[in-house]
């Protein structure tokens, strides 16, 4: 690696992190207006489910707070999302005992947004190159229109977007990789994340549709050459 290439890489990393930190700063501003509340009605349900799992270790077989008076059978609900929140909170609270569940919950979308931005950069770079990836990530990180990624919006949306980007990145990376073992690992990892995604949100079919379109696009491009 030449000195100039090393300098360019350092410059890109700095710009990337500045954009992500700026995006986090923008999305954290909503926390000052929450006053102990959340954004969106579903946030209260997910927070309640997470709190029960944290306090009792698991979720009861019937959710009596829904469909009163009989409640909802827990087997009919996708509870992986509150379980993910609960166990990540337990992990963090063991390191930072003063960290409350409410603080964790309202900041979760911003943390997931930061992780998604990094994966998004590598995903776009894999398809369109590093320049497009940098400009796309800056736009993605700093736009104020992703209201579901702001602090206080305790919903599946942030995690859903993270899974979609990760699945697509792993699939495209595996699709373009020549080594069989490396390709198999990446494609299987994409499938594993798709399975986890399916346990989080019923709209998992959208990612399968996107992969189908990606393959059709490549077939059309290859046959037209």
Number of strands: 2
- Percentage of β-strand residues: under 5%
- Decide which structural class fits the backbone: mainly alpha
Strand order of the largest sheet: 1-2
Total discrete domains: 1
Number of helices: 8
Largest sheet: 2 strands, antiparallel
Helix content: 55-70%
Q: Describe the global form.
A: globular
**Parts with pLDDT < 50 across at least 5 consecutive residues:** none
Radius of gyration: 20 Å
Rounded average pLDDT = 87
Q: Distance between the terminal alpha carbons, to the nearest Å?
A: 34 Å
- Following the backbone from N to C, one meets helices and strands in this order, namely HHEEHHHHHH
Fold and architecture overview:
A two-stranded antiparallel ribbon has the order 1-2. The chain is built from 8 helices and 2 strands, in the order ααββαααααα. A hairpin with an 8-residue loop joins strand 1 (62-63) and strand 2. By secondary structure, the protein is mainly α. It has one domain (3-39, 101-224). Helix 2 packs across helix 3 (80-95) and helix 6 packs antiparallel against helix 7 (180-198).
Please specify the SSE layout and strand pairing:
Elements: H1 3-28, H2 42-56, E1 62-63, E2 72-73, H3 80-95, H4 101-128, H5 130-142, H6 157-176, H7 180-198, H8 205-224
Antiparallel strand pairs: 1-2
Helix pairs in contact: 1-4, 1-5, 2-3, 4-5, 4-6, 6-7
